[in-house]
Amino acid sequence: MISREYRNTRFLIVDSQLESRLLLERKLKALGAWYIDVAVDGQHAIDRCGKGLFDVVICEYALEGRNGQHVLEELRERALLRFTSLFIMMSAETTREMVLGAIDHQPDAYISKPIVENVLQQRLDALLIDNESLYDIRHAMDMKRTSEAINRCEEKIRKGSKYLRWCEKTVAELYLQTKAYPEALRVYKQVLNEKPLVWAQLGIARVYLALAEYEQAETFLKQVIKTAPNCLHAYDLMADLLVETGRAVEAQAVLTDAVNRSPAAIRRHARLGDLSMHNQDVETATEAFRNAVEMGSHSVFNRPENHIGYARALTEKSESAPKELRDDLARDALSVLEKMASSLEGGDLIHFQRSVIDAKLHHRLQNEPEEAASLAKAEGLYQRIGLELKSEKALEYAEALLGAGKDTQAEFILAQVSLLHAGDEKVMQRVAQIREEPVSAGARQRAAELNKEGIKLVESGDFAGAIRVFTDALDYSPRHPALNLNLVQVIVKSMENRQTDEQSLNLAKQCLGRLGNLPESHRQYARYHHLKQKLGIL
Q: Fewer CB within 10 A of the end CB, N or C, for the chain?
């Protein structure tokens, strides 16, 4: 060793098996270590690191609850593990899934079990020597003295240090973090002039992406994905690029490929869920958010947004599902919201979204008191955060209000969104669409399919069948003017042919009642007025 001998190194052993902990402790003591602490599971390890600093954490991967990767991610996310500290993963089997799952938070080393003493010493010696040689840089990073860390890296690079590549990679990352893009690009290009290293190619893509030079960034990312298909960070960056350039469907395909290669990445599942919902692919979104929620139960990445996304996807799915499945899916979505841990409830935005989705689900299940309570809670939150909401969240609230028959309140929200986003054509189109048909895209599609089926039945003279189908269509889109008028029209025809009953007549009245506030400027108003008069006469 150089100067940091084993007796000056603070070790933490994390293993659920007593025999394994004792065995490793004996081996470390034989090497001269005396400061050795232990943890029996992931939460215990995080608690120990929260109360004290360790130079080396040796952690079993296969822990109950939080596994070793969960522990590493939380320690890094919460800054409980310093740059000067080492994290070593132990495992009886280093699986492909385990290694590929550690994208953003890689351990410093893997050690295979059973541990052989001389192999352990060789690995630890090498790691501790390297760490000591780079200690000044890592310590500066711990102290957030970025300029000092950059200068020390550049100095080692000029001197041709044996740690040249590590210093180049680190200094380029520091330049990126401080938005010194020309300097970062200089370092990455210098590396590539000497050797085609994947991390340098990826770094150049990141610089070009930050500078919005998308064409050049895409060229490098395609090259990385082709030559290193397991470099999953490249897929994440490519998805970001595709979204920025208006290719969200392609971005979803890229993330799907990445998820298939590494199924354990929680944040990527959540990202895929968001993109799929944007692309109106509710099936993929439901599966992606389900994975994010289930895999994240013991992770620092267990975000309330994942639970909200899962519940929203199930809600959307219930709105377009066959009648016999709709209520079950709605109850599943309510269950997801109910199971959100109190620690995950988040701030006003999370509470607001939860209340809106809650209201839509209770409306689906015809739980009127619960629906009213959820909308009242959403209203109070909207008064606090309404102007800060993204348009899609406010419009989701307007949908819930329209579903509950609170047209005046809904119109206030729609008018406010229109005022705030007057120059955004897509938002304005969505506002108009909600005024016409305040349901999900899937429900609109299902209603349209049933509407076509109903028209064919009318043309064949099957009025009773058409009434049934139009009624089913209105279950998916109850406020749509044309759908309501189609049902009224077929009921009028059946009345003229003496093929109707009192139940059908009441249906026609309900349809006309839904359109009572239809403005005279609406393209369906003349038809509405004509059918209303005709039904009155009949």
A: C
Pairing of strands 36-39, 56-60: unpaired
The span from the CA of 76 to the CA of 74, in Å, is 5
Task: Answer yes or no: do 108 and 16 share one domain.
Answer: yes
- Give the pLDDT confidence of 88-114 residue by residue, as tens digits: 999 877 666 655 555 557 899 888 888
- Residues 413 and 375: beta-carbon distance below 8 Å: no
Q: What is the pTM of this model?
A: 0.89
Q: How confident is the model at residue 3 (pLDDT cuts 50, 70, 90)?
A: very low
Q: How far is 150 from 203, CA to CA, in rounded Å?
A: 17
Q: Which domain holds residue 413?
A: 389-438
Which residue, of 114, 133, 152, is where some domain finishes? 133
Q: Mean per-residue pLDDT for 419-440?
A: 91
For residues 163-180, b (16+ Cβ closer than 10 Å) or e, as one string? Answer: bbbbbbbbbbbbbbeeeb
Boundary-marking domain end, from 109, 133, 157: 133
**How far is the CA of 473 from the CAs of 118, 248, 406, 446, 505, in angstroms?**
73, 30, 22, 7, 18
Q: Are residues 123 and 84 in the same domain?
A: yes
SS3 for 36?
Answer: strand
User: Which is nearest to 360 in space by CA: 410, 322, 408, 324?
Assistant: 410
Return the CATH number at 459. 1.25.40.10
Ramachandran region, residue 477 (left: φ > 0; alpha: ψ -120 to 50; beta: rest): beta
Tell me the pLDDT tens digit for each residue of 101-152.
555 578 998 888 888 878 889 999 999 999 999 999 999 999 999 999 999 9
Q: How many residues does the chain have?
A: 538
The Cα–Cα gap between 510 and 494 comes to 17
Q: What is the pLDDT of residue 114?
A: 84
Q: Give a yes or no: residue 146 inside a domain.
A: no
pLDDT tens column, 270-279: 999 999 999 9
The answer to whether residues 25 and 105 belong to one domain is yes
Helix ranges, 339-406 (H):
348-364, 368-385, 391-403
Residue 15 and residue 109 in one domain? yes
Cβ atoms of 175 and 184 within 8 Å: the answer is yes
Alpha carbons within 13 A on the beta-carbon side of 420: 17
Confidence of residue 64 (pLDDT cuts 50, 70, 90): confident
Kindly list the strands in the beta sheet with 86-91, ordered across the sheet, starting from the edge strand earlier in the chain. 36-39, 11-14, 56-60, 86-91, 109-112
Percent of the chain with pLDDT over 90: 76
Same domain, 124 and 15: yes
